[in-house]
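Hello forum,

I keep getting stuck at the same step: I have a sequence, I want structure tokens, and every attempt I make locally crashes halfway through. Rather than fight my setup again tonight, could one of you with a working pipeline run this one for me? It's a single chain of 276 residues.
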Amino acid sequence: MKRLDLLTPIGIVVGVLVLIFGVLSNGASGGFLSFLDIPSMIILFGGLAAAMLVNFSIKELKRLPSVIKQGFSIKDHSLKDLIETCILLSDRARREGLLALEMELDEVKDPFLKKGILLAIDGIESDTITDIMHADIRAMEERHGRMRNLLEKAGDYAPAWGMIGTLIGLVLMLKNLNDPSTLGPNMAIALLTTLYGSLLANLFFHPLAAKLLAQTDEEVFYKQIVIEGVIGVQSGQNPKLLKEKLAVFLSDEDQKEEEDKDKVSPFSEETVRNEL
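Reply #2:
Ran it on my machine without issues. Output:
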């Protein structure tokens, strides 16, 4: 289930507040308004849009809002719930056979886990199931990488166009040294465009891209555990042994909590010995 990740907007707001504090604390003439320059913004955002249009197709650019939205959300992956589900499926499969799991599929919310269980019910060999599910993971990584590339490229182009704006401002300033009234506006273009580009890249585009990469890594890790669980269910592995196998993916704190729960678990060691 996805939910709003409050840390992302909080981080951006904190960054903006730090910038405002830096401006106002120095008692700059004109205050924060002195750091607003329309020509600089036009150069930066216009150039950035032009570079993105050259680099990507319209189809890819249409996905940019959804990619940014993804950076402001987080998907909950409960490893303990996943392990518990695999244990229940394994227990039923051992008692009633794999075909009995069809009645449990409505309770399985994770589509990746459901896909694996359906493959097991269909009688697919474990090696083939593993290959199919790993191919699904690789395809997911490829899709995520292409979408993340939108933010990474925008983060690369923004400082570059900031530097282009700086060069434009310097050229205009040097060509009009005899007219003191033009020095201020041209210098503003020269400096503020670089400021805007660096700020946009390092507070927005690159951090969001890094966050999406972390989300992808987390999802890959989760799906690797799903594969282990599916293969355990398909092979008729003892529920207790499957739980111990999957528990190694938990944090130390969660592993200790699971060990405490095992003391009252229906899958006691006596049960395991009887089943073996």
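The beta strands are 2-4, 73-75. If your local run keeps crashing, start a new thread with the error log.
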